Each structure stands twice: as C-alpha cells, then as structure tokens.
Amino acid sequence: MTYQKVEAVRGNTGVMTDARFPLAQLPTPLEFADRLTKAWGGPQIYIKRDDLTGFGLSGNKVRKLEYHLAAAKAAGATTLVTCGAVQSNHCRATAIVAARTGMKCLLLLRSSDGQPPKHVEGNHLLQRLAGAQVRFITPREWHDRAALMEAVASELAAAGELAWIMPAGASDRLGVMAFDNALVELSQQIEGPATIWHASSSAGTTAGLALGVARHQLDMRVVGSSVGESKAELTEAVHALLVESGASDAPFEVVDDYVGLGYGKTTDEELLVQMEATRLTGLIWDPTYTGKALVGLKQEIESGRFEPSDQVVFWHTGGGFAVFAHSFPLG
Fold first, then answer.
1. CATH no. for residue 318?
2. Annotated catalytic residue within 88, 171, 187, 225
3. pLDDT digit string (tens) for 199-242?
4. Which residue segment(s) compose the domain that 150 sits in?
5. Same domain, 80 and 113
6. Is 88 an active-site residue?
7. Where are the alpha helices (DSSP H) in the chain?
8. Cα–Cα distance measured from residue 182 to residue 20, given in angstroms and rounded to the nearest whole number
C-alpha cells in the first residue's frame, strides 16, 4: 500500500500546521443507538464510531498519529518512541503505524512491578506482533517518563537512529489539532445542541474536542469522563494543552466519579454495564476506557442530568482488543 503525505509539516519547530499522514478510515460513522436509548431511558444517544478508524489501527489515537507521523517523516525520524500502560491503545496503534510505514518503534510500558506481564494478550500481543521493541518501567519510573524517553532517543542516536518522541496518548498540540479537526467532521453529521461524552485520560482528546467546539462555535458541550485521574489533575492537564494551543478559554467539563478502582482496574458491576451495552448495540467496548465512560453515562442518565430530548454523542474511542485481557462475569 502506498501513502502520500501533505507537503507542510511541523518537524521539530513546534509550529502547528494542518499536515497529516493519512492512516485512519475517515470520516467515521455517527450512529443512533436506538435500543440503548430506549433501555437507558434518557437522552437520544448517538455513537461516534472511532472504533472503525481501521482494524489494528482502530481507535481515536490514530487521528493523533496522522499528525505525528507527518511531522516525524518530515524530520527524517526513523524510530517512533512513546510510552503507556501495558494495554495502551496508543502504544498498540503506534507499533502498527511503525510497521505499516517502515519505521522502527520503541515503547516504554508501565507495569505494576516494571516486569513483563505473565500473559502476552490484548494490545500487548499486537505490539509484539508488530515488532515493537518493548521496555518495562515501574509506576515510580513513570513519573520520569519524559526523561526516560529522552535517554532512549540519545541511545538511538548513538546507534545512528533518529527518534521521534510522542507523549502518552500522543496528547500534545498535534494531538489536540487532530480532534479540533474531528469536530468539523462531527458537525457535518449532527446539529447541536449536543453533549459529547467520552473517556478521558491523557487529556489530548478532551482538549481537542473543546478547542474544536470553541473555534467552530458549535452548540456542543464537551464532557470527559476520567478513567483514572482526579478531576483536578485531568482538568489541569486539559487546560495546559489548551493554553499551549492558544485557546485557554475553550469550555469543557471533567467528571471523576466513575474511575472505580482506578486506571486499568475493573469491577464486575462495571463489566456488567459494558456487557449490557454490547447486547443493546452489538458494539465492543474497552473495559479500561469506553467501558468506564459508559458506566458514567448510565449513572448520569439515572441521576437526571439529561432530558429525553437531549442529544448525547458518545465518542467511541476504540480499544476493543483490551477485551481479551479481562475476565467477564458471564455466569
């Protein structure tokens, strides 16, 4: 398969452009979830199907990777370097992007003890199948991930490679721009007013959605349902990205009432909601991200947040491969 990239690129100058390297199958559909809407007895629920951006490249992260890859190619980079949890959707997508475009990939993966997991499954299996080089770090080392990735870049440089470093989730100005543009796509599929409900963790998707709503003056409200971080932490991270993108006043909301046991940890009650949603829509959800966000949406509906005439767009950020790394209470 041959790809063409646009001529304008960011490189390492930090200047934002519209450069993207086409990877995702866009636009993704917007579907009305009629049976879910009736069963949950709340607003009109639509699903933005970013789980259909591709197969191995499925999910919202691919939108961000299009912009990063254009910049990386323009800079002459040979290796993509990034970080995330063992079951990171972003790391899985990065590994497959590298394989697809003839680049190398090195991932720093956070595990509970800095050791490889006992079972190679889910996203981690796909990372390994794609040929990514993997190094494991502890939660304590995770706090120094930026410095660790810089050290990896120096190591690669000594071996004649040029690294392109991406933060967790590709959540920086390029990632924000990807979702600013995604809002243009959504605006052609539905008219406001509407609430965009989505799983939020590394802040880039939330910031990009907020920027898009503000820049294009859309009658939409952005709500990020945290999957692990506190409301204060995630709000600060989103705001920092908006400031960096020149849109500090873009409105958004973060809720952290549904993080449960924390990032990557699930309860049977959460998984039962996810199973219910699958049986009402035929869609596959990610227990770490979309599954938790679904729990939040259902509980917010039950609490009376929405009117029956309201429109809610649930942004399906993909990640279905993580289903195969969890045990469900099937009875």
1. 3.40.50.1100
2. 88
3. 999 999 999 999 999 999 999 999 999 999 999 999 999 999 99
4. 62-170
5. yes
6. yes
7. 34-40, 61-74, 89-101, 122-129, 139-142, 145-158, 173-187, 204-215, 231-244, 268-281, 290-302
8. 13
